[in-house]
Recover the amino acids of this structure.
């Protein structure tokens, strides 16, 4: 008996929630970034599971695009973190929250 | 049940073959370097008076020495990562051999066994995936050593590896277009055809530029001279694995040589026919001048596996000779070669190959 | 994929995803992220998506997380001193998390999807996905290449040291 679709969607929901908790709770911006990547991957799992269940390749093509966009976003985001670190010497989101005054 | 046993036997065979060629590679390293430098090399270790030209020294004395040395973990280092890094260096390279074909088919007891441990549809991409996982061993080894020179070597090494991975992958696109498949066994089989009736259709004749790019990128990927600045024995002591001793050092050395064998295996499969013996088909030799020699299928399989092993040994030897002949690149020269030399060249190769394929074979849907 | 294999892998995936979010050392979080991505790629193989699985390893586990590790090592980040924003925030976030899981699970169960037990041969293989990518989705494909170019230029411009 192959695993039912609902199990894949449930796992994806759990990973997504773990990612959301990471973004809300952690203060280190790099860990927040990694939690965002977790959320994107949970969505990828949903897309692939549904693609298999519906028999359509559209889900897998969308995953391809999600990966590309995630790569671009990770590159730019990490560049921003590097630039901020050079100015403020910290990666703590609380300390990065306010502009210079 | 029999399928599982057959798959296990094939995996065991290819791993053992690779480890034997790797051992031979280590021996060649010592002996060929000695001959190139006009000396004899290590030949003092002997068992009951048998020194075997240095075989006993390299294959028995060295591993025993490494395994019995004390395993020192530097103070203040990350113990878990220090332990994991050599494993992350060796395992991805060994696992890649699952898709390398070492023969055509073996007819045994009514079954036709495809001589490739795992027949994946996405063969080449599997290889590229695990080669890109090999970067973690380097970068974590540099970080976990709590030593700024190791970290420098680790970061340089991983930057070099990810730069040359790209050139490797793009060079392979031309090969994929020529053979119309991503599966390595399909590519090896396609090289059994004859060009003009007499020349074996090996990849080197169709994609010579891709061969040069792939070979260069492969040597850079395994961080061998002329690309060994991350290790640079005369400058950084041992670069990213300075703080490793004993069995962990042995694992790093092993990953170096297994990667040499991997590059040799991939170059043979893509460009030199893999297990193909010229004019040998599944039922025997078919020479272009008409003679045919019929052979039983087991003899054909043995000939093909032997041909594969010999080609592996040749390309391992070639990489070792290149290592001991060329001086080391400076780091900026290395990065410039990767990004401004090999990358545009491989893209140009893709465009030219695509043009030729469309003009010769006609546009297909 | 058999249910037993799914359960074992699912437990491992959840544990490593939790490690990413919970662990105080950023390098260990990044390593846990690699493990999570690799396990997800195993799920993709079980779902007949071979090309996507291999691309996940090449792109995500082999390049993006390496980039994360580079940045962590460049900034020399040690163990986080103040990892979370205080116990009040943690409890509130945990409550939101539970609510979110319940909402998503209910929505997905209500939606329901027809289960196709068999898929055509060659489903998820490179040729099939590539055909879709270059015919139906050609315009997004070209736009993605421009997106990547913009990202490269942006990242270099942001991270360059102002001379």
């Amino acid at each position: 008996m192959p695993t039912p679709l609902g199990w894949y969607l449930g796992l994806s929901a759990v990973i997504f929630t773990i990612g959301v908790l990471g973004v809300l709770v952690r203060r280190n911006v790099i860990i927040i970034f990694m939690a965002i990547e977790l959320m994107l991957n949970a969505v990828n799992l949903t897309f692939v599971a549904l693609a298999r269940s519906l028999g359509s390749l559209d889900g897998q093509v969308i995953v391809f695009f999600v990966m590309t966009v995630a790569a671009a976003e990770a590159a730019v985001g990490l560049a921003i973190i590097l630039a901020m670190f050079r100015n403020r010497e910290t990666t703590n989101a609380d300390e990065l929250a306010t502009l210079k005054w | 049940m029999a399928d599982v046993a057959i798959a296990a036997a094939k995996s065991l065979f290819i791993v053992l073959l690779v480890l034997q060629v790797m051992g031979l590679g280590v021996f060649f390293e010592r002996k060929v370097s000695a001959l190139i430098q006009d000396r004899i090399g290590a030949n003092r270790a002997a068992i009951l008076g048998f020194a075997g030209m240095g075989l006993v020294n390299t294959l028995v004395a060295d591993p025993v020495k490494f395994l019995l040395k004390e395993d020192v973990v530097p103070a203040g280092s990350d113990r878990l990562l220090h332990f994991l890094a050599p494993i992350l260096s060796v395992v991805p390279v060994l696992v890649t051999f699952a898709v390398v074909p070492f023969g055509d088919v073996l007819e045994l007891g009514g079954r036709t066994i495809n001589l490739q441990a795992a027949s994946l549809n996405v063969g080449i991409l599997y290889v590229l995936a695990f080669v890109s996982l090999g970067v973690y061993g380097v970068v974590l080894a540099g970080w976990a050593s709590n030593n700024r020179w190791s970290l420098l070597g680790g970061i340089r090494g991983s930057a070099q590896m990810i730069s040359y991975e790209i050139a490797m992958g793009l060079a392979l696109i031309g090969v994929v277009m020529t053979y119309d498949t991503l599966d390595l066994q399909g590519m090896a089989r396609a090289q059994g055809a004859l060009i003009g009736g007499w020349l074996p259709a090996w990849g080197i004749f169709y994609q010579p530029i891709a061969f040069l790019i792939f070979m260069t990128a492969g040597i850079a990927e395994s961080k061998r001279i002329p690309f060994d600045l991350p290790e640079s024995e005369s400058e950084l002591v041992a670069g990213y694995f300075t703080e490793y001793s004993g069995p962990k050092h042995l694992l790093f050395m092993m990953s170096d040589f297994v990667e040499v064998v991997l590059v040799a295996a991939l170059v043979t499969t893509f460009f030199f026919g893999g297990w193909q013996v010229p004019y040998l088909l599944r039922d025997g030799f078919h020479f272009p001048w008409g003679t045919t020699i019929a052979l039983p299928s087991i003899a054909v399989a043995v000939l093909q596996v032997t041909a594969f092993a010999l080609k592996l040994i040749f390309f391992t030897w070639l990489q070792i000779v290149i290592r001991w002949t060329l001086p080391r690149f400076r780091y900026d020269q290395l990065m410039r070669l990767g990004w401004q030399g090999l990358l545009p060249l491989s893209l140009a190769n893709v465009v030219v190959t695509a043009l030729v394929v469309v003009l010769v074979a006609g546009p297909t849907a | 994929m058999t249910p037993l294999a799914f359960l074992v892998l699912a437990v491992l995936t959840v544990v490593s995803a939790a490690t990413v979010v919970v662990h105080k050392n950023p390098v260990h979080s990044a390593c846990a992220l690699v493990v999570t991505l690799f396990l997800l790629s195993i799920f993709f193989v079980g779902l007949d998506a071979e090309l996507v699985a291999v691309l996940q390893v090449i792109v995500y586990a082999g390049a993006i997380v390496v980039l994360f590790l580079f940045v962590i090592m460049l900034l020399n980040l040690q163990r986080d001193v103040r990892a979370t924003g205080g116990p009040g925030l943690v409890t509130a976030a945990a409550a939101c998390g539970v609510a979110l899981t319940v909402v998503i699970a209910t929505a997905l169960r209500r939606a329901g999807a027809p289960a196709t037990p068999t898929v055509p041969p060659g489903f998820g293989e490179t040729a099939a996905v590539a055909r879709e990518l270059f015919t139906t989705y050609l315009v997004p494909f070209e736009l993605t290449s421009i997106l990547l170019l913009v990202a490269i230029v942006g990242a270099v411009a942001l991270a360059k040291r102002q001379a």
Summary: Residues 20 and 100 of chain A are 29 Å apart (CA to CA). The helical segments of chain A are 5-25, 29-54, 58-88, 93-96. The mean pLDDT of chain A is 90. Chain A touches chain C through 72 residues (CB under 8 Å).
